[in-house]
Amino acid sequence: MIKKSKKIIALGLLTTMVAALTIGTSAQAENETETVSKKSKLEAYIKFTRILNAIEEQYVDDLNTTDLIDKALKGLLTNLDAHSSFMDKKSFKELNVQTSGEFGGLGISVGMKDGVLTVIAPLDGTPADTAGIKSGDIILKIDDKATLGMTIDEAVSLMRGKPKTDILLTIVRKGELKPLEIKITRDIIKIQSVYAKKIADDILYLHVTSFDQKVAKDVKEAIKKDSNRTGIILDLRNNPGGLLDQAVGLTDLFVDDGVIVSQKGRDGAENVEFKAHSENTDIKTPIVVLVNGGSASASEIVSGALQDDRRAIVVGEKTFGKGSVQVVMPVGDGEALRLTVARYYLPSGRTIQAKGVTPDIVVHPGKVARDNNASFMIKERELKKHLEKELEKIDGSKEKTKRDSKEKEKKDQEKEEDKTIITEEQIYNDAQLKSSIDILRALIITSQAKQEK
To answer: Does the pLDDT at position 121 exceed 50?
Structure first.
């Protein structure tokens, strides 16, 4: 019994010694790792300072330290990712103006895709849109300057300028045999972000062109005004994004529970969930969301969240794939860092970054073919009236026919000029919109059938 106790005590002492040795070894390893890390950092700082001094002393042109540091910061941020950047006073001021809803330039949103400067989307009704710039265009040159190796901020700075001045963009476009040169006249860009229109008498069409400070408010007001809607088409095509809180606010109008979007980063403080609220939420009206390759960032959050929650059917083409979070960090004297600190994740946990949102139903742009003979088909109740008109023509009653024709033409023109209504001609010229309407009609019928049960 005593021998057994001695063995247990000896084993206990041995275990304690091994544990102490393990803890000591682990602590020593951590200290060594920390020391190596500090040493590597110090060596890196020394190398940077040494190179900076060499440039100052021997570069062919005289450069002061401030200029060199600014150039180094721009290069550093650009090499992290396409969306991080160092903003000088001018760039920081332009960013503040842009997010307020009015700025000078072309009205074009650009991003880096596959390492080249690519048009995300022209803003509706802006000089770029009027000149014919399209989503997916690659900007090869801005005036006489090649964009290869150029940062987004540098490109934006070149494209902006005094109103009424011209700029020449050399564009590479899919399907074109050679680059296109497009001349654009700069202007003050005033953005109307939300356009509310009617399709027939019961469908509310909401075209959101960008996410500025008033989007959620404007959409909410449009919904409130249209009390007889049976369905909603939310058009986010060529919408380059904007403010995160507006994307969350817009989605929250149609979802009453759960996570809308979350962001996760290296720093735990950046891990945030944005949740839906039940107040003033429309969860019954069927919705179809329209997207394409020009739909990015905030547009992808809205379409992806509504898709994940089975709240809407997404129609169109795959979106751009910009799902990273940037924060603007002022660094004093009117300068700032725009730094990627996290990535967005949709309610299902999937990421948008470089993947985009794939529509539930893929529809490519184009016109819808129509049978022109269909307009000449005469119903039985209209046959007599039609024959009377034909007799009038034969009998030489041309004046009445002319008057009727002019009145019809006038009515058609007034209908086309009514910007709150989408005409049949506009619908058939837009295959994606036509498909959305057909899909929404089916959803409305299904929804009404469920309510009647």
So the answer is: yes
Q: What's domain 103-190's superfamily in CATH?
A: PDZ domain (2.30.42.10)
Q: Which of 212, 252, 308, 430 is catalytic?
A: 308
Residues 436 and 288: beta-carbon distance below 8 Å: yes
Name which of 320, 193, 198, 318 is nearest 249 in CA terms: 193
- Please identify which of the residues 91, 297, 303, 324 carries the catalytic annotation: 297
Q: Is the separation of the CB atoms in 238 and 295 below 8 Å?
A: yes
Query: Tens digit of pLDDT for each residue in 397-426?
Result: 556 556 666 665 655 555 445 678 999 988
Count, residues in the chain: 453
Residue 105 parent element (H or E)? strand 102-105
**Of 141, 295, 288, 285, the residue nearest 211 (C-alpha):** 295
Task: List CB contacts of 396: < 8 A, sequence separation 6 or more.
Answer: none
Q: Is 297 one of the annotated active-site residues of the chain? A: yes
- Tell me, yes or no, if 4 is annotated catalytic: no
Among the residue ranges 158-167, 315-324, 414-423, the one predicted with the least confidence is 414-423
User: Could you tell me the pLDDT band of residue 373, with boundaries at 50, 70 and 90?
Assistant: low
Among 322, 430, 434, 435, the one annotated catalytic: 322
295 in catalytic set: no
CATH topology for 194-326+341-362 is 2-enoyl-CoA Hydratase; Chain A, domain 1 (3.90.226)
Question: How far is Cα 175 from Cα 205, in angstroms, rounded to an integer?
Answer: 31
- Is the full-model pTM beyond 0.85? no
Q: What pLDDT is stored for residue 145 in this prediction?
A: 94
As beta bridge partners, residue 180 has 171
Contacts of 234 (CB under 8 A, 6+ apart): 206, 208, 287, 288, 289, 290, 302, 312
